[in-house]
Design goal:
Helix content is 0%, strand content 58%. It has a single domain, classed as Avidin-like (Lipocalin). Strands 1-2-3-4-5-6-7-8 form an eight-stranded antiparallel barrel. With 120 residues, the protein is mainly β. The N and C termini lie far apart (27 Å).
Length: 120
Amino acid sequence: MARSLDGLVLAPVADQAPGQVGTRTRFHYHERDGEIWAAYAGGDVVRGHLVGTRAGDRLDFRYVQLKQDGTTSSGHCVSTVVDLPDGRVRLEEDWRWESQAGSGTSVVEQIDGSDALPGV
């Protein structure tokens, strides 16, 4: 099993569609006893939260976010946790909106915590 996500900061490796998570978004992860949660913000996202579970290297969570335009959206994501050769962590994600149409895949990777967003 890949290492714990607790205390890690992750960021997308590529931008998604406008109004969604992008390379300027920072996810601050926490993990305890099979539970995972994170706060995130940056780019088009003013504030977002995710909460779910971890079983082995599989995460299953729901997310909700407030965007710069004042709208909210929510969805479901299943991710695989991967240990990278350089010691960092990657999440390979399959997500779908529940509040609107759309689905896709994304990749987020661990970054240096000094690049974190304040207040997240």
